[in-house]
Amino acid sequence: MTKIKIRILVLTIFVFAAKIDAQIKKTGVPFITNYSPKTYKAASENCDILQDSKGMMFFANHFGIMQFDGVRWHIVTQPENKSMVRSLAIDKKDKIYVGAQGDFGYANQETNGQYKYTSLVKLLPAKSRNFGDVSLTVVRGNEIIFFSSEGIFIYKNHKIKVIQSKAGFDSFFKLEDEIYILDNAKGLLKLKKDSLEEIPNTTQLAGLQIRNIFKTEQGLVLLTQKKGLFIFANSELKPFVTEADALLKKNQISIATQLSDGYIGIGTRQAGLVVMDSEGKLIQHINKQKGLQNEYVTNLKTDVEGNLWVTMKEGISLIQISSPLSKILDTANSETKIYCSQIYQNKLYIATDNGLFWLDWEAYKSGKSENVHFQPISGMSENVWNVGVFGNSLLAFEKNGIFEIKGNTAQLLAKTDGAWQGILIPNRPDLLLVGGYSGLYLLKKVNNSWVYQHQIKGFEESSRVIITDKQANIWIAHGYKGIFKINFNATFDAVSKVEFYNQEAGFPSSLFLNAFSINNQILFGTTKGVYKQDAKSKKMVQDDAFSKYLGLNNHIRLLKEDNQKNIWFVSGENTGKMTQTTGGKFEIEELPFRKLRYLYIPGFENIQTTTSGDVFFGTQDGLIHYNSTKTKKYQTKYKAVISEVKSIFPKDSLLFSSRYDILPTSSDAENDTEKKEMYFELPHANNALHFSFASLFYDEAEATKYEYWLEGFEPKWSEWNLQTEKEYTNLPENEYIFHVRAKNCYDIVSEEAVFKFEILPPWYRTSWAYLLYLVLFGVLIYTIIKYQKNVAEREREQLILSQEKELLKNRAELNEQKLALEQENMAIMRENLEATINLKNAKVASSTVNLIHLNEILLSIKELIGQIDKKNDSNVNFALLTKINRIIDHELQGDQHWNEFEEIFNQLHDNFMQRLKTSFPELTPRDMRLCAYLRMNFNTKEIAPLLGISVRGVEDTRYRIRKKLQLPSDTNITEFILNF
Questions:
Q1: Is residue 902 part of a domain?
Q2: Cα distance between residue 153 and residue 159, in whole Å
Q3: Is 584 left (phi over 0), alpha (psi -120 to 50) or beta?
Q4: Three-state SS letters, 828-896
Q5: Which residues span the membrane (predicted)?
Q6: Strands 316-319 and 308-312: what pairing?
Q7: How many CA atoms lie within 13 A of 640 on its CB side?
């Protein structure tokens, strides 16, 4: 009775858990994604898990705070003492509070994506700074509380209050808005404001090694490390007996968390994860054999999608506990490729490429999966293509023939050249038609057993797909040829009629055709939708009803009707269910089955439904189970994020990234909790950028597609693709906005992320450069104009010159003519002039001779008169003689004769007298005459009578003239006069 009461009490344990419409699946194992230390490239152990308001995941790793955006892992910051991070908390502004070993503080994200850690230990008094692991960090209103065994540190308004215990603290628990502390001596305490309040009668809890506490209206549920679960109410501690008691006590509880609808997730040290319901029934036990990387669970947290994140001593696992799909796993069997499944006599059979296997379905479904394993059917070890129930018999169709399954063995009914599947002939439940690799075979039921009869003649095509219609026609689909419609003779030993349909009959192609029977109607799957046969024309036409829901261009790979008239389909890569509503319309449900994309064995898509609502999908990744009572929200909003932006030229340099210690941080961002808009100005040399992006949606993250658009460079969004990086090179100067958004496996589009930046122009395209270009352009235009003017001027001058040359040429010709005439005249004149000159020379010579002769006579007379004795003469004689002497002197002067001589002399000797007088003005007329005689090359004796002086006088005169001419003593005066 006590046990019943306890179970009733815990029905209300998790009333504040996440709101999900249905319980965690008990059948099968949830999908698990494992992230090993090799994947995230950090320390193997992680101690805490956190998700911010955007959906970004953070983990308390021994190397620091580790971030995961769905694609990439980064250590974003470390404590100042570089110790391991043990706990995390986050406030409404996404400021992350960090508890480490011997340190605690907070981390802010700056505008460049970098996280900056600030230690708060400096606010502690020196005596309180010696502490170990901060195992829990809690945000409570406007204060943050850091818990360690040595003390509790309450941070508020940049001050820290320290609470300590003499015996020390064992563990800490946050229940709604209340915080409980387990003291090693006093038992359970409650933190009220800044002080601890003892809870009466809880000293008995000290030393229990409590790992978590859940609050109910009737009391507290305590989870201890080694002693299992307890209920504490009214000062009384009672065990809470569960189906997992032995498992939990043996393998020790390390952590526990509340899941949806009263479920509890318990992490152990040695046995992985245990999930129980509110009554203590075991729902799931997920260990290393079922997909976890490690048995030692260190923490558990659910994200906004309802997924469960599990950190372990080695690695991280994401368990999709909210999904209605799960895997039917058997740790003792490694079969994966499932061609068919079948429930028969409470046993689940699977046809694989390595034989036929079975397990106790009811036992597995009831949660006893650890002791339930797939058992092989002996006698079958090769490809089993199909298995089905015909009458009361279970038959398997294998590479070597047809088998009947009895117990754990297979009995060969017929050895054939391969068998694909079997089908009962309409109106003849005792006849079984089997399609083989090269024809058809007939089996007949005799004494409640199937007996092989013969191969049917007249048809030898591979018959993997066989269906029948209500007229008993047999339809066979050959994937590479077309559709055959056949009829048998009355004895069913030969084909009586064959009709063949391919592309010529109306199908869009002869390839990849399939045939299905839906609601007693024969339909055909093609690469362009669903077709049917027109009753009048017998041509194949598209079926309007199915085309409306499944489209006109999808490859219809499977249509299957269940016992509730729902139609299951595989169209293209999508799987779904069509449920008929009032008015003959259908509702399509596709989203829960998006995980099945790319998992089917091509050409062997198979879906098995049961009356109990179980649905099985045979895939390359094993058998997958679906339960329609388990629902999940698929329209959840999420964000795309830009993980990194780096310039790739001239060398890689990060512009934006949350990665630890790779970008400079600003010192003034310590108290800045407001995020500024990202905007970067980049020099033109950095016009090649590389973007890395991701989506904060972790369910089937590898199937998430992205589209991006560089506004300012591209006209529109890209096509959806799987790449998470994009590179742009040679971007011209402009302002740009890089947009990216994601579309998850459920076709939900994320909020977009943007990155704004500007590529600055190169120096030669700046405003100053353009101003310089304008000036240079003006100079160039001026130079061109000046040059053109100069060219025009030169051309004009050249034209004038050429005209002048022409004119000169003409004048030259005239001048030549005139010159010829003038030369003739000159010759005549030269002759006349020479005659005149000769005449004048003769005259000058004659005059000179006469003059010399006359002067000689006169000199003689003068000499005779000079000899008269003046004293003996009378006065009259003396006067007469004086007069004679004066006349003779006058004649000797010869001025008139000299003037005539000088005129003729200048004409003959190029104005010698004038040039000489101009050059030497000090010369006297006597000197000039002497020079003229020297020019005529007369000697001293010849000159003396001409001047009327003695030879000695001539010598003296020559001497005076030499001085006046300033001639050196070694210069001959006669040569100088001749060359002057």
A1: yes
A2: 10
A3: left
A4: HHHHHHHHHHHHHHHHHHHHHHHHHHHHHHHHHHHHHHHCCCCCCCCHHHHHHHHHHHHHHHHHHHCHH
A5: 767-785
A6: antiparallel
A7: 26
- CA-to-CA distance for 930 and 973, rounded, in angstroms? 11
Task: Examine the domain organization and report whether 276 and 418 are in the same domain.
Answer: no
Question: 757-779: per-residue pLDDT in tens?
Answer: 999 999 888 888 889 989 999 99
Give the sign of the dihedral formed by CA 582, CA 583, CA 586, CA 587: negative
Are 745 and 703 in contact by the 8 Å Cβ rule? The answer is: yes
What are the C-alpha distances in Å from 793 to residues 23, 93, 241, 778?
A: 102, 80, 117, 22
Domain that holds residue 830: 766-864
Same domain, 751 and 820: no
Q: What is the DSSP letter of 494?
A: B
Q: Which amino acid is at 315?
A: G
Residues 220-277 have pLDDT tens digits of 899 999 999 999 988 889 999 999 999 999 999 999 998 877 889 999 999 999 999 8
Q: Are residues 522 and 599 in the same domain?
A: yes
Query: What is d(CA 1, CA 175) in angstroms, rounded to the nearest whole number?
Result: 29
291 with 346, same domain: the answer is: no
Cis peptide before 761 (omega within 30 of 0): no
Residue 939 pLDDT level (bands cut at 50, 70, 90): confident
Q: Could you say which of 321, 351, 381 is where a domain stops?
A: 321
**CATH number, residue 219:** 2.130.10.10
β-bridge partners, 627: 614
Do the Cβ atoms of 80 and 103 come closer than 8 Å? yes
Q: Are strands 753-759 and 679-682 parallel, antiparallel or unpaired?
A: parallel
Please identify, among 272, 290, 321, the residue that sits at the C-terminal boundary of a domain.
321
CATH code of the domain covering residue 911: 1.10.10.10
Q: What is the token pair recorded at 636?
A: 């959840």
Query: Of 93-107, 888-902, 940-954, which gets the smallest average pLDDT?
Result: 888-902
The confidence band for 880, taking pLDDT boundaries of 50, 70 and 90, is low
Examine the domain organization and report whether 473 and 515 are in the same domain. yes
Q: Are residues 779 and 696 in the same domain?
A: no
Q: Provide the 3-class DSSP secondary structure of residue 905.
A: helix
Q: For the chain, how many structural domains are there in total?
A: 5
* Separation between Cα atoms, residue 620 and residue 339, nearest integer Å: 9
Cα separation, 86 vs 172, whole angstroms: 13
CATH number at residue 746: 2.60.40.10
Residue-wise pLDDT tens digits, 122-133? 999 999 999 999
pLDDT of 440 over the 80 cut: yes
Q: Please indicate, yes or no, if residue 916 is contained in any of the structural domains.
A: yes
Alpha helices by DSSP H, 602-679: none
Distance from C-alpha of 698 to C-alpha of 905, rounded to nearest angstrom: 132
pLDDT at residue 13 is higher than 50: no
Q: Are residues 727 and 788 in the same domain?
A: no
**Do 693 and 802 fall within a single domain?**
no
Burial 951-972 (b: 16+ CB within 10 A, else e): eeebeebbeebbeebeeeeeee
How far does CA 429 lie from the centroid of its chain? 65
Is pLDDT of 550 > 70? yes
Give 16's pLDDT tier (boundaries 50, 70, 90).
very low
Residue 8 in this model has a pLDDT that exceeds 70 = no
23-73 residue pLDDT tens: 678 889 999 999 999 999 999 999 999 999 999 999 999 999 999 999 999
Task: Write out the H or E segment, with its range, that includes residue 169.
Answer: strand 169-175
Tens digit of pLDDT for each residue in 390-413?
A: 989 999 999 999 999 999 999 999
Beta bridge partners of 728: 689
Q: Model confidence over 625-672: pLDDT tens digits?
A: 998 777 788 888 999 999 999 999 878 788 899 887 665 544 444 444
